[in-house]
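Sample intake sheet
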Amino acid sequence: MSHCPEWIFDAVASQVANEYLAQEMPIRSIAKKYSDGLSEKYHAVSVEEIEAVSEEMIRALDEVNVEGEAVILLNSYTFFRIVYEGSNMKRKMKPIFGSVDAPTSSKDYNIDGSVKRFKAYLFSVRSSVAVLAPSDWKLSSFEDLPFLKKMAEKSVNILDIL
C-alpha cells in the first residue's frame, strides 16, 4: 500500500492545530480538509487520527503555558517537520531518485509517536536548540510541496463535517 510518510502526517496534524487556534472553525472540519487531501495521494488517512494528534498537541502546549505563542510554535513545528529530517539536517526536497513525498510501504505514523515527537520539539524550544520557522513562513506559500500548499490554501466550510 501507499501510506503517508510520518513527517507529512506530523506536519499536517500541527497545521490542523495551528488553523484551529487561528480560526473559529471546528477542529473536525479542518482535519477533514487535510484527511481528504492526503487521501487523494496516499492510502486513506483518518480524520480521527489527525484530530486526535492535533488535540494532543494543543494540550501539550497548554501544559507548558505558551499562551500567545501557540500558533507560532505550531507553525515552527510544521516548518521543522517539512524542511528538516533531523535537528540539523535539511530534507532534500528534490532527491535524485524518487520524490520527497513518496509514499511508504507501511503505515509508520501513529498518534503516540506523533505526540512524543511534538513534545520533544517543545522541549528543544525550551532548551533554545529548536529550529524555528522564519516569521513570514506559511505552509500555504511553501512551493516545494505543491499538494500540501494546495491543501493549506483551501478554505474550510462549516458544512464540511457532514
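Comment: The beta strands are 84-86, 89-90. Residues 56 and 136 are 26 Å apart (CA to CA).
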